[in-house]
Amino acid sequence: MVDKVIIRGIEILVASTQTALVEYLFSKNEIKVGRLVAINAEKIVLSEENRQLRQLIQASEYNYADGISIVKSIHKKYPQYRHIERIAGADLWLALMQKSAEMAVPVFLIGSEAVTLAETSAKLGTMGVNIVGQQDGYFSSAQENELIERVQRSGAKLITVALGSPKQELFIKKMQDCYPDALYMGVGGSYDVFIGKVKRAPLIWQKMGLEWLYRLLHQPTRLKRQIRLLKYAYYYLANKL
Ligand code: UDP
């Protein structure tokens, strides 16, 4: 089951499971076309400060709830969906890679440091993923057009972009305007997690909805970013969802 809800003016897909979302994105044996965006509290608050980001998220075809605050907000505003769980971007990305291998979908990887990208690509290759191109995340704006042409020429149908937020969302939009015939996904630190460079929170923390706290304790520089969570907590408590 995949349905849509609205949280703070943003349309979000609700899927009963991650598998249901993957099946939806590949229904009729064809990968969907559009942008797949992870929504969390930080991104919602950021989008209220940054009009361009807000427009991008509002126009994105497939937003999903990656972030316990968003999941709790859906439970509160839409009690009929109180069973839905968080879909972590890194897990969804991996599931899409597995499905792409199965369906022989051509994949283009963008983002992260060159060494991380090389390791990610090699590991995906052993899983049978058809990688038709790749580019690390440290290119200049002068190189963007050439990269977009490369993506287009590769014929990729799934393009995953790890540049962090909101950089990845902005670049994805630019690519999509030139080459709309693909599914784009912003994946943040997913490649780093995939090759074991960055550790996810232990499962018990994830299950308790505390992955954000684990990341904060390991990367205290995220505190400034996570201050936005306080603003979101107010929206939640004041029923401004
Ligand atoms: N990154 C990049 N180019 C940049 C900035 C960041 O390729 O100009 C990569 C960085 O190496 C890392 C990822 O983007 O692999 C960002 O991960 P982060 O955990 O910050 O993403 P989040 O999911 O928190 O937005």
UniProtKB/TrEMBL annotation:
Pfam families: Glyco_tran_WecG. CDD domains: Glyco_transf_WecG_TagA. The keyword tRNA processing does not apply. Keywords: Glycosyltransferase, Transferase. GO terms for molecular function: lipopolysaccharide N-acetylmannosaminouronosyltransferase activity. Its EC number is 2.4.1.180. It is an enzyme of class 2 (transferase). PANTHER family: PTHR34136, UDP-N-ACETYL-D-MANNOSAMINURONIC ACID TRANSFERASE. This is Lipopolysaccharide N-acetylmannosaminouronosyltransferase. It comes from Ursidibacter maritimus. The gene is rffM.
